[in-house]
């Protein structure tokens, strides 16, 4: 199975900060990488697909990038509504695997 | 608009089975995969498998082989997941999610396994 190593597990940050969350794939997954945001008691929301493409309705302060086997989600200027859990997902190969999650919280 | 409406909370006994549903609307049900995902309390997300309603083909995470069975009813645009031989480990929220993009999700079904 492809392992997705996500870091950090917790990220305290201040409003207005630029923050980055990273997932490292244990094998080549090309651009088959998605990012999701999940707020407490809610379903996950697609933020980024194809590693770098912004999903419909997602604010432009979110972006995705790739460097080799490292995939990053960046929020350019943190807003209060961004406080949530974030997960990556690889869909290159079955079984599809999620990262372990990052809890983004106010410092 | 696209909607995935899941069935309600389930409280079930150990060793029993449960079948939860995901009713799709606002798109062509038979032309999109439907994925199922588990989230145990306080934990992350695990992919269970997918079904392609157009032909009934399925693919499972080996971890859930024998635990989950995915089916779909084209006439009602509803996908189902049956979970069998339930234990406390199966207590979780179960989501359905549409297609290759995972762009639409159901609201989740909480399944609690308890005697």
Helices, strands, pairings?
The complex is a heterodimer of chains A (107) and B (115).
Chain A: E1 4-7, E2 10-13, E3 19-25, E4 33-38, E5 45-49, E6 53-54, E7 62-67, E8 70-75, E9 85-90, E10 97-98, E11 102-106
Parallel strand pairs in A: 2-11
Antiparallel strand pairs in A: 1-3, 3-8, 4-5, 4-9, 5-6, 7-8, 9-10, 9-11
Chain B: E1 3-6, E2 10-12, E3 18-25, E4 34-39, E5 45-52, E6 57-60, E7 68-73, E8 78-83, E9 92-98, E10 109-113
Parallel strand pairs in B: 2-10
Antiparallel strand pairs in B: 1-3, 3-8, 4-5, 4-9, 5-6, 7-8, 9-10
Radius of gyration of chain A (CA) equals 13 Å
The mean pLDDT of chain B is 97
**Structural class based on helices, strands and sheet pairing of chain A:** mainly beta
Low-confidence stretches of chain A: none
The poorly predicted ranges of chain B are: none
Order of helices and strands of chain B: EEEEEEEEEE
User: Helical content of chain A, roughly?
Assistant: under 10%
Question: What report would you give on this structure?
Answer:
The complex is a heterodimer of chains A (107) and B (115). With 107 residues, chain A is an all-beta fold. Chain A is built from no helices and 11 strands. In chain A, strands 2, 4, 5, 6, 9, 10 and 11 form a 7-stranded mixed sheet that branches. In chain A, strand 7 and strand 8 form a beta hairpin. The mean pLDDT of chain A is 97. Chain B contains no helices and 10 strands. In chain B, strand 4 and strand 5 form a beta hairpin. Chains A and B meet through strand 4, strand 5 and strand 10 of A and strand 5 of B.
């Amino acid at each position: 199975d492809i392992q997705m190593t996500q870091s950090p597990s917790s990220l305290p940050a201040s409003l207005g900060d630029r923050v980055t969350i990273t997932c490292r794939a244990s094998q080549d997954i090309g651009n088959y990488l998605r990012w999701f945001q999940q707020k407490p008691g809610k379903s996950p929301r697609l933020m980024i697909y194809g590693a770098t493409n912004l999903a419909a309705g997602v604010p432009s302060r979110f972006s995705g990038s790739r460097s080799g086997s490292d995939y990053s989600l960046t929020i350019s200027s943190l807003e209060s509504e961004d406080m949530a859990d974030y997960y990556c997902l690889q869909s290159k190969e079955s079984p599809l695997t999620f990262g372990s999650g990052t809890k983004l919280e106010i410092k | 608009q696209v909607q995935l409406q899941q069935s309600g909370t389930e409280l079930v006994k150990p060793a029993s089975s449960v079948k939860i549903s995901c009713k799709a609307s606002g798109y062509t049900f038979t032309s999109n995969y439907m994925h199922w995902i588990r989230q145990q309390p306080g934990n992350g997300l695990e992919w269970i498998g997918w079904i392609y309603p157009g032909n009934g083909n399925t693919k499972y995470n080996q971890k859930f082989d024998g635990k989950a069975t995915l089916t779909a009813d084209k006439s009602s645009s509803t996908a189902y997941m049956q979970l069998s031989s339930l234990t406390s480990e199966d207590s979780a929220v179960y989501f359905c999610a549409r297609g290759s993009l995972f762009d639409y999700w159901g609201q989740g079904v909480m399944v609690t396994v308890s005697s």
